[in-house]
Specification:
- This protein is of the alpha/beta class and 453 residues long.
- The chain has two domains: 186 residues, Aspartate Aminotransferase, domain 1; 248 residues, Type I PLP-dependent aspartate aminotransferase-like (Major domain) (Aspartate Aminotransferase, domain 2, 3-Layer(aba) Sandwich).
- The protein is 39% helix and 16% strand.
- A hairpin with a 2-residue loop joins β1 and β2.
- The radius of gyration is 22 Å and the shape is globular.
- Bound molecules: 4'-deoxy-4'-aminopyridoxal-5'-phosphate.
- 4'-deoxy-4'-aminopyridoxal-5'-phosphate (PMP) binds next to α5.
- Belongs to the class-III pyridoxal-phosphate-dependent aminotransferase family.
- Its cofactor is pyridoxal 5'-phosphate.
- It comes from Aquamicrobium aerolatum DSM 21857.
Length: 453
């Protein structure tokens, strides 16, 4: 029979059948509520990503607090998905919940700054080192707006993305390399434009390909995560970021670093930890603890060029900003996050426990004689059911084993642990206790040895 990640397909199917039964039997209330889809929603869920969970149906959450989720059947899970990073610092951290409660009585949106807004500007500059910031509502929006600025001030049409990367619902980044050809991403819905007119995809860690693309002279900006976290997890090879920065400078191309996931590295993100020097910087999801908010920063040089550009334009309809952006609820939550939650101490705990998780998972893999590997970027850990390290998006796509991975995920849920649905990502929050980490290692040991048997 066919083998996937060292496990036979028939064994995967048998384990799936058993785990599905266990999941369903434990959740009569969730099954009654959503087993056949929730009424009133297209596809039975309020957002179609919710169909991507590996469970037969999603469970209905009653409460999420710290690193724990409780569902309506009374089952408690240690949450390592943490809203796929939106709740990376735990669900409803007390300082954020308090700040939201305070602000809730004082107005929720009014398109004017308040004193929290003033404080946050300073906090962002101090923490991330860039002098000028704007606030948006999603990381997708922040990336879109930052790319608009990049094209405007360079007067160049194209951007460069790494193959297999993800930066949100940003049309212009939806290109890929397939057998050497540039194409739109295959899953992209309703797109009739040839996006390769405005973007080029090259492999991560391939500095020669970057150089060659930049030499064309039409690339406004390279957009990248410091580590590719949306494509299994691909680490930069030694020297890659230095070479990327040198190449972009040489060709007059701007560098946008998207820290939305890699803020797991440390208080100033991967950028501060590794001394990256972006022209544009984006951080979304966790920055307001789960309140929809994102920030994008720029260097003094970019800001000066933008001012010059703006002076030449008709005012209005810039294609940037949205009405609810920079609202007081966002600022209350961001201020609490930056001042009281995303602290050096919090990161120290997260790092320590994430290291414990990484070592525990690696040992299970070794004990079961599997050719898998584990990668970690600060508080973000990923197991990959294939040998590593991976060098780029193409290798990551080959390593990804959805059929096997989904049964592991389901097995983990049945053993009290939730991890991210799209790949094998686990986040350790300041609220994640050692016992949660140990529960996940034990659950992993249990389901992996079931499969490897
Ligand atoms: N950038 C990165 C690196 C991401 O992983 C994501 C989402 N997974 C985004 C941007 C977009 O975030 P959002 O969906 O909140 O707009």
């Amino acid at each position: 029979t066919e083998i996937i990640g060292g496990i036979s397909r028939s064994r995967i199917a048998a384990v799936r059948e058993h785990e599905t039964m266990v999941y369903v039997a434990a959740r009569p209330r969730s099954e009654a509520a959503i087993g056949k889809g929730a009424q009133g929603y297209l596809g039975g869920v309020p957002m179609h990503w919710m169909r991507d969970w590996p469970m037969p149906f999603p469970f209905i959450v009653k409460k999420a607090k710290g690193a724990k989720l409780t569902d309506i059947d009374g089952i408690r899970l240690a949450d390592f998905c943490l809203g796929d990073t939106g709740s990376m610092f735990g669900h409803s951290p007390a300082p954020v919940a308090d700040a939201i409660r305070r602000q809730a009585r004082r107005g929720l949106t009014y398109m004017l700054p308040n004193s929290d807004a003033l404080a946050v500007g300073t906090l962002l500059s101090e923490r991330f080192g860039l002098p000028y910031w704007q606030v948006a509502t999603t990381a997708s929006d922040a990336n879109r707006f930052a790319l608009r600025v990049a094209r405007a001030i360079t007067n160049r049409s194209k951007i460069l993305v790494f193959n297999g990367s993800y930066h949100g619902a940003v049309d212009e980044t939806f290109v890929q390399l397939q057998h050497g050809d540039q194409t739109n991403k295959k899953g992209l819905a309703g797109e009739f434009r040839d996006l390769t007119q405005g973007a080029v995809a090259v492999e991560f860690n391939d500095i020669e390909a970057v150089e060659k693309a930049l030499a064309e002279g039409d690339i406004a900006c390279v957009i990248t995560e410091p580590v590719m976290t949306n494509s299994c997890m691909v680490l930069p090879q030694p020297g890659f970021h230095d070479a990327l920065r040198a190449a972009t400078r040489k060709h007059g191309t701007l560098l946008l670093i998207d820290e939305t996931h890699t803020i797991s590295t440390g208080p100033g993100g991967y950028t501060r930890a590794y001394g990256l020097e972006p022209d544009l910087f984006v951080l979304g999801k966790p920055i307001a603890g789960g309140v929809p908010a994102s920030v994008w920063g720029m260097s003094a040089d970019v800001a000066a060029r933008w001012q010059e550009y703006e002076a030449t334009k008709e005012p209005g309809y810039s294609g940037m900003g949205t009405t609810l952006s920079a609202n007081p609820l966002q600022f209350a939550a961001m201020r609490a996050m930056l001042e009281d939650v995303m602290t050096d101490d919090a990161y120290k705990w997260m790092e320590e426990r994430a290291e414990r998780l990484q070592e525990g998972l690696a040992k299970v893999i070794e004990d079961n004689g599997l050719a898998w590997h584990v990668v970690r970027v600060g508080a973000r850990v990923e197991f990959i059911c294939a040998p590593g390290p991976l060098a780029n998006g193409t290798e990551a796509a080959q390593a990804h084993a959805p059929e096997l991975e989904s049964v592991i995920h389901l097995g983990l849920v049945n053993r009290g642990c939730l991890i991210a649905p799209f790949h094998n990502m686990m986040l350790v929050s300041p609220a994640t206790k050692k016992k949660h980490v140990d529960r996940l290692i034990m659950a992993f040991e249990d389901i992996v040895s079931e499969l490897a048997q």
